[in-house]
Structures are given as C-alpha cells and as structure tokens.
Design brief:
Elements lengths: L2 H4 L10 H29 L4 E6 L2 E6 H50 L16 H34 L4 H17 L3
Antiparallel strand pairs: 1-2
Helix pairs in contact: 2-3, 4-5
Length: 187
C-alpha cells in the first residue's frame, strides 16, 4: 500500500480534540445549570405544601419539599449522568460527521496553498461535503494544467531563445522564471 493511500484512511484523521472537549463541557454545563434550576424551582414551589406518609405504621405529615428532597436529588443525578453520556455520544458522532471532513479540507487545502497542485481532497462517499471537495479538486486540476502549460511555454521560449541566439539576459530571466515555477508549484 502506498503512502498516499494510507493517508486517507479514516483512522488517520482526527478532528480538533480541544474544540470537541470544549463543546461537550459547555453543553454539560448548560444541562447541569438547567437541572439545578428545575430542581430548585420544584423544591421552592413545594415548600408551602404538606405531604402525608406512613412510616413504621404511623401517619407522618411533613413539608412536601423535605419529603421529596432525597428522591429529587437521586432523580436529578441520574438524569444529569444520562444526559451527559448521551451528549458525549451525540457530540462525538456529529463532530466526526461534520468536523472530520472539514478538518480534512483544512489539511489538504494547506498543502494546495503551499503549491502542491497534485493534491486532491478525498472524502468518504457519505460525507456531506463531497460536492464541495469535487469542485475544489476540479479547480486544483485546472490550476495544475494551467501552470503546467505556462511551464511548458517557458521551456519552449528558453529553447527557442537559445536557438535564435537571444540575449543572454533574456535566457537567464526565462530560466529564473522556470525555476520559480518549479520551486513554487508541485506539478
């Protein structure tokens, strides 16, 4: 398997873990605040009511807020843990579906930015941005052809200038231009 084929396996691409972690933390913090707020409101609104229950064969009348407090705390904790786990799973799934391809775009576009016109963006078939990747690949291929044509034209000019005994300064300038094309673009 060649190096280029290996670089496009899914396991070699990672999204930005810092972004992912901050997103999960912020969402869980919002859930925690909402849970505490709803628990507090329920406790507050039930303070002016009474609840009757049987404890050890005796009828006991208590303030409702104190009677439901232990159950309320357990229910809140269980709900918070379940929502946090669901948040982590959903965030990981969504971030790999959306941010993963964008991260690959970013990496490949940086290579193209450096002048590597042989680079193409490869995504999985089911990724949502495959049409954008195809358009960028066509653009890069067109740039590749145009730069290749320019380089070929410069080579032909150098050859023609050498055969026609053109001034050495012109030939040197053409050679310099040819070198710049070679240094700035991977064709």
């Amino acid at each position: 398997m060649s190096q280029q084929e290996r670089t496009y396996k899914r396991k070699n691409y990672f999204i930005k873990r810092d972004f992912q972690s901050k997103f999960i933390l912020k969402f869980c913090l919002i859930v925690l605040i909402g849970t505490i707020l709803s628990t507090g409101l329920l406790f507050l609104f039930s303070q002016d009511t009474l609840t009757s229950s049987f404890q050890q064969s005796r009828l006991v009348i208590k303030n409702t807020s104190l009677a439901i407090l232990p159950t309320l705390i357990y229910t809140t904790l269980i709900t918070f843990v379940l929502i946090t786990l669901a948040t982590i799973v959903v965030t990981l799934f969504v971030s790999h579906k959306i941010a993963g391809p964008l991260f690959r775009f970013e990496k490949d576009l940086k290579e193209i930015e450096k002048g590597d016109l042989t680079k193409s963006i490869k995504l999985r078939e089911k990724d949502q941005t495959t049409d954008l990747a195809d358009s960028l690949n066509k653009m890069t291929a067109n740039l590749h052809e145009k730069v290749l044509d320019i380089r070929t034209g410069v080579e032909n000019l150098i050859e023609s200038a050498s055969r026609q005994n053109a001034p050495q300064e012109l030939i040197e300038d053409l050679n310099h231009l040819h070198q710049k094309i070679g240094m700035n673009f991977k064709i």
